[in-house]
Amino acid sequence: MVKQMGDIQAENVEIEKKMREVARSLLIEKEVDVIIGYARGTVPLSSSPIFIKNVEDIDSLIWDNLCYVNLARYVVPPLTEFVDNEKVELKVGIVSKGCVARALIHLAKEKQVDPEKIKIIGIPCNGVVNRRRIEKELGEKEVLEISVSNDQVIVKGKDFEEVLPYQDYLNELCKTCKVKSPPMSSSLSDVIVGESIEISSVEDDFSDLSEYESKTPEEKWEVITELLSDCTRCYACREACPMCYCNLCFVDQNKPIWFGKTSEMSDIIVFHLVRAMHMAGRCVGCGACSSVCPMGIDLKLINRKLEKIVKERFDFTAGLSLDVMPPMMTQKMEDSEDFMLGEH
Amino acid sequence: MNKAVVESKQDEEWQPKIIAFLCNWCSYAGADLAGVSRIQYPPTIRVVRVPCSGRINPFFIIKSLIDGWDGVVVSGCHPGDCHYISGNLVARRRFAIVKELLDFIGIEPDRVHFMWASAAEGELFAVMIRKISELVKKLGPNKKFEKKW
Which of A82, A312, B116, B125 keeps 20 to 30 A from A20, CA to CA? Predict the structure, then answer.
């Protein structure tokens, strides 16, 4: 979705200011014990998560177009602290763009997060720049500074300066994102503070998938093999994903060994295929998996397909409200059977 | 295997190997009925009996494909007839996603099939297996997941 961009830099400063205000008042009024947010990264082109307990540290919270981590990752399992030899669950305030809030809401639905223990500090997101793509574009040159102004990404290094169009270097999933701020509904009114939007269902035409879907199986296989050929199975995508919280992941399981541990193509594809299956009806399309991939693989094709299947079959979009049951947790007698083999 | 057998095997037409996961309460009994009624169907399927179609982990299907089975059939009780009340309904949602994703990554949609067959439908079971064998035969051997080394 192409939003008419004002000055992104100015927008970010405004968001940052509001976010700090809300976070500060939450900490001062003791509504939360700890704030999870984004801080300046140690290297350019990055941001790092930060846990803030003291009001003085609030100013290290930042918001810019490189805040790609999904912070919902840090509340499963719940944050705890020892007070008088007793384990106490902390109340957490989480700086949330649309997708972080959706992940939190979905995790609450899966009973991984207690909605009474979290406060969603809503901020309107204006997209995340895909840093891997910039790195790929620049090759071996070392980036020292990056800034966004108007609709340009300006990358500076030792003896070069490059201006890249913002829209082209946006995360693929951010381009199609329809929920920029946390989705508000009546059951969430005391969880969300700050910016939010009223939204009960997402309209999407998935036209970005139609070209791929019209291919023959052979062509599809070729595209997927090409896409994943760089994968080294480092599992960074799994580690960054807020929905991957299983105690024992299927890739670590060795009894039974479902599939090989090699980085051969068939094993790689099976890994991504099964991970996708586990994400059905749960993926919130935050793009964290693509942002953290050290090989720069963009998994948006698979993420978008999942969104499409769930939307078309079960009319569901993950993480919009606490009242709707996720499709894989329930079933209906009249579900569609169009994929099954009939008598004729 | 002696030489004569090997030669005669080479002359034979290629037959697909299909793994069939049949639910204990309906489809397995259906297959049994087809057997005792002496209804003919191609000897392409190898049956695995499972307690319920809801028992089937999508990994069963994928592992079968990795291990080189040319086709996979999953059959359970008709909706509403499940011995465990809603096992097949849960499975149906799962299968819908498995089927779409397999198709999406480029596995031919005709390799993996889902069907319902009750204990009384021996005839139907045979018809379906005939149909599936035909479809899989047309696709040829499953080589996508074959390892290079």
Answer: A82
Question: Which DSSP state fits A129?
Answer: B
Does A272 reside within a domain?
yes
Asked if B106 lies within 8 A of A259 by C-beta distance, the reply is: no
Q: How does DSSP assign A140-187, residue by residue?
A: TPPEEEEEEETTEEEEEESS-EEEEEHHHHB-HHHHT----SPEE-GG
In three-state secondary structure terms, B22 is strand
Please indicate if any CB of chain B lies within 8 Å of the CB of A218: yes
As a whole number of angstroms, the distance between CA A184 and CA A1 comes to 21
Question: What pLDDT, in 10s, does the model give residues B55-80?
Answer: 999 999 999 999 999 999 999 999 99
Domain ranges of chain B: 16-121+128-134
Cα separation, B27 vs B119, in Å, equals: 6
Total tally of structural domains belonging to chain A: 1
Stretches in chain A below the pLDDT threshold 50: 1-3
Spatial distance between the Cα atoms of A230 and A299, rounded to a whole number of angstroms: 12
* Residue numbers in A near B144 (CB within 8 A): 221, 266
pTM of the model: 0.91
CATH 3.40.30 fits B16-121+128-134, yes or no: no
- A189 lies in a domain? yes
